[in-house]
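Colleagues,

For the teaching module next term, I've prepared a clean inverse folding example: a structure given as tokens, and then the sequence designed for it. I'd like students to try predicting residues themselves before seeing the answer, so please don't circulate the second half yet.
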């Protein structure tokens, strides 16, 4: 008997069932990988200008569907409509950027005796992209856009909780004229579809974004076949505020730095380190900024923060607060239905509290004091993660010194901006392996080949 597994998609702001989605099993995953494998032979041979044109058309299709994609994300993920529009726009922009790649994937000519040495950036083949639930559209795009541009085919697995925008992106790719099998979206369980990306030898690279725990398993699984991996994993980023900073600006923007997407953001600045001489003043400024965060209906343009993704995740967030955790103040949130959680500021007493060392992935921020620059750097680096962070200071020399000393892939000075599709993104330490985005993104989807041609 053929048993089809399905999953219910829930609107996290209302707890209502939106739709039911079929989940692929192992046989369907292998069939999709086979299709991708066959399609890649023709896709890599498409003339660079034609591949670029198809990617541009895909970008235009996303643009034409932008409002629909954004609304779908609001319903499926509880993202605020403003964020969801930015996320769909990010995929569009990334596809336009990727459309510049096929004609610029340049090799080298290297001087040798008795001939010429030339290098080629060959596509890898089939790429499996595994996406988490927190940013379903952009994170999918960061994998599939450069991979396709470099001549690979892609099978994309969205997270179980958030498959809707990915499914729509798959339809748009076909409508834009991408050949059958070049870009497929396969909703399914991580333990089934995701694992098959790891074990099926026809998949030549796995791009994984998600928890450090699962990322570690994927890396170990891929090692058996020496399969290429890019890992974008967790974070526990520091927002370092020095006494010489514009304290008003630092406090006013700190909620944005951690509560954006309800804190379900790998770049969330979930530890605010404040120089002791301005600690009390900073908290005085932070409190009204936190109370001002409007939590509610994500479809309303005036809303700053929507719900968490699920009831289970809300419980997980709540569990980080131990009975002894000192809660400084909180914002407000609706009663329910919906998986709401208020913006919460805590003052942990010891460096061992879980809220200081583990990724909460919710709207909870810990504020701690430091004495001087050396202690700020030590505390910022006192984590197994190294993804992101901010430094607030009016001293340019200090900004550069601290930026160089903090072990993280993406730092901002007097800002919380982390992601631009044309600049590289990725983590140090247990936050990941490899870089996405930026001018070299496509090279991560190629093998460099050297060819010597004898002239004698
Ligand atoms: P998760 O690790 O539970 O799942 C991520 C994806 O992996 C999902 O699609 C899931 O189905 C799949 N998966 C689960 N088990 C698998 C397995 N055994 N084999 C293959 N695939 C498997 O993570 P999540 O809860 O969906 O996402 C939250 C995590 O993602 C956080 O830790 C967050 O920091 C991280 N994240 C990192 C970045 C980054 O760029 N560094 C960006 C966003 C999210």
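(Answer key — instructors only)
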């Amino acid at each position: 008997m053929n048993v089809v597994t399905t999953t219910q998609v829930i609107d996290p702001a209302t707890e209502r069932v939106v739709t039911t989605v079929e989940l692929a099993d192992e046989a369907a995953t292998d069939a999709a990988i086979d299709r991708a494998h066959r399609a890649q032979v023709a896709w890599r041979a498409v003339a660079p200008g034609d591949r670029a044109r198809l990617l541009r058309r895909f970008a235009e299709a996303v643009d034409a569907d932008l409002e629909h994609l954004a609304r779908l994300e609001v319903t499926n993920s509880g993202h605020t409509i403003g964020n969801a529009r930015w996320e769909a726009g990010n995929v569009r922009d990334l596809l336009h950027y990727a459309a510049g790649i096929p004609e610029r994937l340049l090799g080298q000519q290297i001087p040798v005796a008795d001939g010429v040495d030339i290098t080629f950036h060959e596509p890898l083949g089939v790429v499996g992209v595994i996406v988490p639930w927190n940013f379903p559209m952009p994170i999918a795009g960061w994998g599939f856009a450069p991979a396709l541009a470099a001549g690979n085919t892609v099978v994309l697995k969205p997270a179980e909780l958030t498959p809707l925008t990915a499914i729509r992106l798959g339809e748009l790719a076909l409508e834009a004229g991408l050949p059958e099998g070049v870009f497929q979206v396969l909703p399914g369980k991580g333990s089934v579809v995701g694992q098959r990306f790891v074990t099926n030898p026809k998949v030549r690279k796995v791009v994984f974004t998600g928890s450090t725990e699962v990322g570690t398993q994927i890396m170990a699984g891929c090692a058996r076949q020496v399969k290429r991996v890019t890992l974008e994993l967790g974070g526990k980023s520091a927002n370092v505020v020095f006494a010489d900073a514009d304290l008003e600006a630092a406090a006013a923007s700190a909620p944005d730095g951690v509560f954006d997407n309800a804190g379900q953001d790998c770049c969330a600045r979930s530890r605010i380190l404040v120089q002791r001489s301005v600690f009390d003043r900073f908290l005085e400024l932070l409190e009204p900024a936190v109370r001002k965060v409007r939590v509610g209906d994500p479809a309303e343009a005036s809303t700053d923060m929507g719900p968490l993704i699920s009831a289970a995740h809300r419980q997980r967030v709540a569990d980080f607060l131990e009975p002894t955790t000192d809660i400084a103040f909180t914002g407000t949130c609706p009663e329910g239905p919906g998986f709401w959680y208020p913006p919460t500021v805590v003052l942990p007493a010891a460096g061992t509290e879980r809220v200081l060392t583990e990724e909460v992935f919710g709207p909870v921020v810990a504020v701690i004091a430091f004495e001087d620059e050396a202690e700020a750097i030590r505390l910022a680096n006192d984590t197994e993660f190294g993804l992101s962070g901010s430094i607030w200071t009016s001293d340019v020399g200090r900004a550069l010194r601290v930026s160089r000393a903090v072990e993280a892939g993406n730092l901002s000075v007097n800002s919380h901006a982390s992601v631009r599709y044309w600049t590289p993104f990725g983590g140090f330490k247990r936050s990941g392996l490899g870089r996405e985005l930026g001018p070299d993104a496509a090279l991560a989807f190629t093998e460099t080949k050297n060819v010597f041609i004898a002239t004698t």
